[in-house]
Amino acid sequence: MADPYQTLGVARGADDAAIKKAYRKLAKELHPDRNKDNPTAAARFSEVTGAYDLLSDTTKRAQFDRGEIDDQGNPKAPFGYGAGPGGGFRPGGGRGGFEFQEAGGGDFGDIFEGLFGGGRRGGANPFGGGGRSRGNPKGADMAYRLAVDFDDAAALKPQRITLSGGKTVDLKLTADAVAGTPMRLAGQGEAGPGGAGDATVTVEVKPHRFFTRDGDDVRVDLPIRLDEAVKGGRVKVPTVENAVMLTVPAHSSSGKVLRLKGRGFHRRDGTRGDQLVTLMVDLPADDAALAAFVEGWTGDQDRNPRAALGV
């Protein structure tokens, strides 16, 4: 029998915040989408999810601590008999990386149940299960991938998704979802005798033609003219939401990085990363006047800009 405390790597007296923090870390490391060639990671992901499901439920945790149930939520029957096939937990829980409402305005409320909350499915059965009865199994779970434009993901713009049954749902993205945490839609899977299964949605951020992501920051190379680099000035630069004006300092070389505060990806704490703008001096291919100027320019010929490289 596995000890859920050991599975999550927390002490038996750990509070809810410590348990949630440990689960977030392990779920991110072990999620199958990040370990497609590692079946061991997928098994561990299932273990830590089950452990978190038990320990985040106050009643189940107390029963486990008293030795009344095992790590699967099954009662410890006398004389060594198990709880039977109805026992166990299914991963699920409280609100996660999406808030959503039905397209057209109907509020779905708490239909999104993600990995990191305290909600639970219906009442317990005699075998310790989370609402599934032995005679009436729920329908199969469904998995979805939602490809989101880079700009929309950074700005957390609402998205629309159509489920397999044809239902259209408007989603409000959050930082957790954009970070790759799969979210659970309770009751949105296939129908079954005991009710519908669940659905999970994993957000995939599409690559951008000129933006790249660096943690919570966004990077972009910005071409500037030679006169803009030498004299400095105000230039227009794109961001994930709109174009803004940026001040280029005089005598700026290619590779100089300027920072636009709060123009990156949203963080879980409500703050945002920055946009890092790398200046790239763009010279015209054939400019006779520029070539003539350089021919007659002697002010910088004795300087070696590569000296720091040892050449």
Question: If you had to describe this structure to a student in words, what would you say it looks like?
Answer:
By secondary structure, the protein is α+β, with helices and mostly antiparallel strands. Helix content is 22%, strand content 21%. Strands 7-8-12-11 form a four-stranded mixed beta sheet. Strands 1-4-3 form a three-stranded antiparallel beta sheet. The longest helix has 17 residues. The radius of gyration is 27 Å and the shape is elongated. The protein starts with a helix and ends in a 16-residue tail after the last helix.
Name some characteristics of this structure.
311 residues, alpha+beta, 21% strand
Q: How would you summarize this macromolecular structure in one to three sentences?
A:
The protein has helices spanning 4-8, 16-30, 39-55, 58-65, 150-155, 175-178, 226-231, 288-295; strands at residues 98-102, 142-148, 159-162, 168-173, 183-185, 199-205, 212-214, 217-224, 233-237, 244-248, 257-260, 275-281. The chain has 311 residues and is α+β, with helices and mostly antiparallel strands.
What's the N-to-C terminus distance? 64 Å
- Overall strand count: 12
Low-confidence stretches: 78-133
User: What structural class do the secondary elements suggest?
Assistant: alpha+beta
What string, H for helix and E for strand, traces the elements in order? HHHHEEHEEHEEEEHEEEEH
Q: What is the strand arrangement across the widest sheet?
A: 7-8-12-11
Helix share, percent: 10-25%
The major sheet is characterized as: 4 strands, mixed
Helix tally equals: 8
Strand content: 15-25%
Rg, Å, rounded: 27 Å
Mean pLDDT equals 79
